[in-house]
Structures are given as structure tokens and as C-alpha cells.
Design brief:
Elements lengths: L1 H20 L12 H15 L11 H18 L6 H16 L5 E3 L1 H7 L19 E3 L14 E6 L2 E5 L1 H15 L7 H13 L1
Parallel strand pairs: 1-2
Antiparallel strand pairs: 3-4
Helix pairs in contact: 1-6, 2-3, 3-4, 4-6
Length: about 200
């Protein structure tokens, strides 16, 4: 949800910036884009598509860790692009807390009950994966690096909430910054190259 929202907001901001300043959209020299597919494929299979219901819980941590590593490597490779350093920090924070808590993102019972207020008795079990998602239910005192867990809440409809981590804040900010940059002024090197091209013609 956060990734999709940040892409929509960032893209809209970048397009609006370009329109207001009457600038052409800028492009980035993205490297190792295949890592994105590598990173999102396990998430689609294990946490999004209907296949998630038939996947053993024991494989979920490995899928999430592999996905996070792929995204982190992609961000590191593209660190020179504005905004990617923020994205890298967020991904590193999320991967760290996931690794320290058995391969899944920890979430407290209180936070889980806010998201699922009608959960039947016994449905939320400490130490177990929360449904078919990426979270593991842990008490605060059992959680390593608790301050990096899914402990923040934001409403997305009447009575509905979604949890997110400090790392998610950095990831979202990084994506918005990257897409905001498509409406920026061309770099001096790009401008000079354009002038030389015009002169040559």
C-alpha cells in the first residue's frame, strides 16, 4: 500500500513540477533494474497473489529476506540518483529488524488488534505469523529493535488502519523524492550536450 501510494504521490508531484516550470521530464540512468523483478516476485507469490494461502509459513521468512535484499542492492547500485540514499536507509532499517526477529516484520498485539478489532479469540497468537502477511506477532518486550517494527498506524478508511515502520517512512520519502526529480531542471552537463547538438546541426 505504501509503495503504491508513494509512487502515485511522487509521480503526480514530479509531473506537476515539470508542468509548472515548463520543463521536459527528466530521465534517470537506472542500473540493474532486473533486481526489482527479483525482489518483487517472491512478495507477489508469498504475500499478494492467491498462492499465498497455500505457501507454508516456514518459507515466508526466506522469501521476505530475499526480497528485501534484492531491493536494498538495487537502491545501493543507484545511490547516485537523488533520493536513493533515503530509500537505501529505509530498506536497510526494515531488513535489519526483520533479520533480528526471525525473518518477518514484528508487530505488537495492541497494534494488531487495532488493525483487526474483530479477530476471533485465539486468532492472534504470539510468536506466529499474522495471517498470510509479512508480520509476526510479538510482545514489545520480546521484540528486538522494537522501535523499527510496524508500530505506527495510519487510517485508510472508516475503522480501517494499516501499520508501518520507521523504515517505511524513509522508503516512502525516498520514492517520492526520486519521482519528484523527473520535473527538475536538466543538469549542466545535459544542457551543454543539448547546445552542442544544436550547434552541430
Amino acid at each position: 500500500m505504501f509503495l503504491l501510494a508513494s509512487v502515485v504521490v511522487g509521480l503526480a508531484a514530479g509531473l506537476l513540477r515539470a508542468w509548472i516550470t515548463h520543463r521536459p521530464l527528466q530521465s534517470y540512468d537506472i542500473r540493474s533494474s532486473w533486481l526489482i523483478l527479483f525482489a518483487f516476485l517472491p512478495q507477489l507469490i508469498f504475500f499478494v497473489l492467491p498462492t499465498k494461502a497455500s505457501v507454508p509459513d516456514s518459507l515466508a521468512p526466506a522469501a521476505l529476506i530475499a526480497s528485501q535484499i534484492g531491493l536494498l542492492l538495487f537502491a545501493i547500485v543507484n545511490l547516485k540518483i537523488p533520493g536513493f540514499w533515503i530509500l537505501t536507509i529505509g530498506l536497510a532499517l526494515n531488513l535489519t529488524v526483520i533479520l533480528f526477529n526471525g525473518g518477518l516484520m514484528p508487530i505488537s498485539p495492541a497494534t494488531a488488534l487495532t488493525i483487526f478489532p474483530d479477530a476471533p479469540s485465539g486468532a492472534l497468537v504470539l510468536g506466529e505469523r499474522l495471517g498470510t502477511g509479512k508480520d509476526i506477532l510479538l510482545a514489545v518486550e520480546q521484540t528486538r529493535l522494537w522501535f523499527l517494527s510496524d508500530r505506527f498506524l495510519i487510517p485508510y478508511g472508516p475503522g480501517y488502519f494499516v501499520a508501518f515502520s520507521l523504515g517505511d517512512v524513509f522508503v516512502t520519502s525516498g520514492i517520492i523524492w526520486v519521482l519528484w526529480g523527473i520535473g527538475a531542471a536538466p543538469k549542466p552537463s545535459q544542457t551543454a550536450a543539448s547546445k552542442l547538438s544544436l550547434c552541430g546541426n
